Amino acid sequence: MLLPENIHPANSLYFNGGFVLEALRLHGETSPMNLYIESRKLHEMQLPVFVLALDWLFLAGLVSYNDNGSIELCS
């Protein structure tokens, strides 16, 4: 699913994760729903794809969930 051979690259988590990171870079610390809205402004993606991309970014150590309930970029 990160870089699959049998689906269009625009549907991959790697591709969509880039838009999530870009939205987070532009808007800073934000709530998960606001991050989804801002990510959709950059690239049309469905909510399940967004959640999977966000999970992948969390597992990769690129984003974190802070005590305020917001998502932020890791340094």
SSE blueprint and pairings:
Layout: H1 13-27, H2 32-42, H3 47-59, E1 63-65, E2 71-73
Antiparallel strand pairs: 1-2
Helix pairs in contact: 1-2, 1-3
- Whole-number radius of gyration? 12 Å
- Beginning-to-end CA distance, first to last residue: 26 Å
Q: Quick check: average pLDDT?
A: 91
* Main sheet makeup: 2 strands, antiparallel
Structural class: mainly alpha
**H/E series:** HHHEE
In one word, what is the shape?
A: globular
- How do the strands of the widest beta sheet line up side by side? 1-2
Segments where pLDDT lies below 50 for 5+ residues? Answer: none
* Helix residue percentage: 40-55%
User: Total number of β-strand segments?
Assistant: 2
Number of helices: 3
Pfam family, one: MC6
InterPro entries: ABC-3C_MC6
What do these coordinates show?
This protein is mainly alpha-helical. The chain is globular, with a radius of gyration of 12 Å. It starts with 12 loop residues before the first helix and ends with a strand. The chain has a two-stranded antiparallel ribbon with strand order 1-2. The chain has 3 helices and 2 strands, in the order αααββ. The mean pLDDT is 91.
